[in-house]
Structures are given as C-alpha cells and as structure tokens.
Amino acid sequence: MEIKKPTLYIIPNFIGSNDSLENISKYNLRIIDELNYFIVESEKKSRRFIKKILPTKNQDDLIFFQIKKNKNDINNEKYLKPLIKGQNMGLMSDSGNPVIADPGASIINTAHVLKINVKPLVGPSSILLALISSGMKGQRFTFNGYLPINSKERIKKLKLLEKKSKKNDETQIFIETPYRNNQLLDLTKKVLSQNTQLSIASCLNSKDEKIISLSIVEWKKEEINLNKKPTVFLIDAK
Amino acid sequence: MEIKKPTLYIIPNFIGSNDSLENISKYNLRIIDELNYFIVESEKKSRRFIKKILPTKNQDDLIFFQIKKNKNDINNEKYLKPLIKGQNMGLMSDSGNPVIADPGASIINTAHVLKINVKPLVGPSSILLALISSGMKGQRFTFNGYLPINSKERIKKLKLLEKKSKKNDETQIFIETPYRNNQLLDLTKKVLSQNTQLSIASCLNSKDEKIISLSIVEWKKEEINLNKKPTVFLIDAK
Questions:
Q1: What are the CA-CA distances from residue A54 to residues A20, A34, A37, A47, B67 (Å)?
Q2: What single DSSP character describes residue B59?
Q3: In CATH, which of 3.30.200.20, 1.10.10.10, 3.40.1010.10, 3.40.1190.20 is domain B7-120?
Q4: Cβ(B236)–Cβ(B197) under 8 Å?
Q5: Residue A42 to residues A60, A67, A94, B138: CA-CA distances in angstroms?
C-alpha cells in the first residue's frame, strides 16, 4: 500500500475581477475541495475565494491559520501542526501566488526543515503575466518588489535599475502601492532615458486589463490613469 | 457594436508528463479552440499539445508560423500577418510559458509597436513554481537563465550569485541543460558556503516531481540523480 506523505499545497488565489470558475483548473478545484486546513493571509478573503470556486464545500469544516504580519513571529511550526499530525494543508494568500511579493516563504522553509512534502499549484501571477506580455526578454529578469518611498532614494533606485538592465541585459520588474502608481509613472517618465522601454500591466484578468509597452519618449505622449489599479512596471534599457 | 481588436494570446504549454486536461482551465481551452493561427517554437510539439487538450479540433485548419532560431531574424512582422489582417493568433512555446527562458519576446515587442492587443493566459512556469515552493523569499528574486559553460567562469558566476543573494537579500534562480544537472549540483556543493540554502525543483508536474531545499552542508549528505531531469536551481545566501 502506498503511504502518502502529508503535503503542504501552495494555492494561487485569483488576481483580477474577471477571474471565475472558468479560469481555474479541475486539478486545483479537486485539491482545494479535499483540504480542510489552510494557512492564509486573511481568513475572510480565503473563505470568499473558496465559496466562489466551491460553493457546496462545507465552510464550517474549514480551519484557518492566519499568518501573523509581525516579522518577529518565527514560530512557524504552530502553523504546520495539522501537517505534523498527518493532515494535508493549503497555503494561500489574498491575491495570486503566495511568496511572490506576499507572505508564506518562511513557513514553507520550515516545512522543508520538517521534511514535509511541498506541492505548488499552477495559477495566475501578475508579475509573470506582466513579463511574458511585455515584449521584454525573459532570459534574465529581476523582480525588485517595491521601490523606496523616499523621493531621492527612489530616483536613485530607478536610475540604478536602468543601468543594471542595460549592463546585464536583464528586464527589471517592480511594483507600487496602487494609489501611488501615477506618481511612479510620472517619475519614470522624468528620470529614465528616452530610449528605455517601459511596460505596464494593469488590472490583469479584469475588464480594465491594460498592457502597454513603449519607450519613455513615447510614454510622454500617453495619458493613462493607473490610480488604485494594481499595476506591474517593467523596464528594459538598451 | 463592440469592435474587438485582433489579439495575440500568449499561451502556456504543459511542463510535465503528468500534465493533463485536468490541469488546464476552461478559459484557456476555449481561447485555444477559437484560434487557427499559431506562432510556435515547433509545429510538431504544438500540434501534439493541441491534439491532447482539444482532440476534436480540426488540425487541418491550423496554420503554424515557426519562430526561426537564427538570432539575426528580426523581420517579426511576417509572423504577425494574420493579426495585421484581423485574425487572432496564439504564441506558444514547447514547454511552459513563452518568453521565460524561451523565444517569443521580440515578436511580442513588435506586436506592441504595431498596437496589437496582447493577452497572456495563465499556465505553468517551472521557474515560478520552483520559487514559490523553495521556502526562499519572493520579495526580490533574479532569474539568471543558464550559467556559463566554461568551468572557471561558472565557478566565478556561482560565487557572484551567492554574494548578490546575500548583499541584496535576493533569491537567485538558474537552470542547466538537463544532462549537465548532476555536474552543476556537484559544483554548487563544492563552491558555495556551508550555510547557503540550495533548493532544487525537478520534474515539476510529473510523477517524479522532487522539491528539496537544504543548506549546502546538508546537501553533502544527499544522494540524488538529476540527470536528464528538467530542474530549476535556487540559492539563498545568509
């Protein structure tokens, strides 16, 4: 008889308002339907996601372990107790894939230390979708997360990313808190070289999805409002 | 009446031998079923993929434009002719997502220049699945593609990636031609620091899927054969 090791499934959530049952694979549905224990960014949003994709699944049976945002919380084993006792679990964040600009990594690391099976499920990542649709190279790329908030440091960072992109022939990817997107777009237009390519991927998997890839000189003629719209920025300097 | 702009869909292929109809979303199936024109890495593998997921789709109607591997081929507009004439197209590589360590980027770039709509579909990326299951941070990461083949340069590069990972708190990802995986694994064990974390994700979405994350000192006690098995390598230096 095959003895199945308890497994921690890494579960992608939806990323856009158009995401529906049609966007999720049968495999993911089947795995999520089999699980009762979840490690999540927030219980409320995870319950909503599960209700949307599996309306008949009994929500009363579900047990959620919310990831503490306190960075000093390194007692990860407590999240993994059901696994240690032999139950499968799912790890889920509020949007897209866990770990990518989201929490979860250190818990997965602890799972590896405890020799727990880790199994990632396929789903939407705005970073990856932005990259493949940008027209920029995917042989080498860096995801830089958020840029510094301080204005001087931010300008310095943008110039550094442009330099790195040119030197290493490497696409540079970054994000911003959505209500500051317009400011960041304006700054890139001001700070980067005319020939540098800037791509934005906004509201992916939503009706308002916009993927635009232009040189800075062309961007100066563009009018676009990115305020409060989840957006990924990419630059490719030549 | 809504006038729909011709769209270039970026279509992920399967990555593993266990990938089946169960792993693909209805949305992707529907879009692929609507398309007759495809830009592909190889016609044969693309036909096989479409046959597998849409066995009743008439293969005689399909027209394939194979991406030339010659790097001097910059006449991308010829691939996009059906789009220019108003037909939707799909861009597909032989495994996983186009662009990521695969061709396609410069054709997508030309599509942007021609103001053609670009729409990425969600699917498996071994690089992304490896990252989210590694237990390593996803706030900052670099995909470095292939390491240099020359032995001295390769050692230098591994040490540089370790240094960069430490300095920038950034996960470093790279790949190798599968028949040289064992050599590369041996080299990492020899060259990297004892405390550096090395993760491998091998044969993702196959029966032989293996995701292992250990420090170099622990790796020295491990025996694993990665020969000819598609594998993603990740390092996180502390």
A1: 11, 11, 15, 10, 41
A2: G
A3: 3.40.1010.10
A4: yes
A5: 16, 8, 7, 19
DSSP string, B88-112: -EEEE-SSSSSSBTSS-HHHHHHHH
For chains A and B, what is the number of CB pairs under 8 angstroms? 155
CB contact under 8 A, A30 and B23: no
| Chain A residue with the nearest C-alpha to that of B118 | A133
CA A182 – CA A166 distance, rounded (Å): 25
**Mean pLDDT to the nearest integer, B200-219:** 97
Chain B touched by A191 (CB under 8 Å):
no
Structure tokens at A9: 């499934």
Supply the pLDDT for residue A73. 60
Domain boundaries along the sequence of chain B: 7-120, 126-236
Instruction: Give the residue carrying structure tokens 């390092």.
Output: B235
Topology, domain A126-236: 3.30.950
pLDDT tens per residue, range B145-183: 999 999 999 999 999 999 999 999 999 999 999 999 999
The whole-angstrom separation of Cα B112 and Cα B109 is 5
Sort out which chain B residues have CB atoms less than 8 A from A108's CB and list them.
132-135
If chain A, 238 residues long, is cut into consecutive pieces of 10 residues, what is the mean pLDDT of each piece? 80 95 97 98 97 97 90 80 97 95 93 97 98 97 97 97 97 97 97 98 96 97 96 96
Question: ipTM exceeding 0.90?
Answer: yes
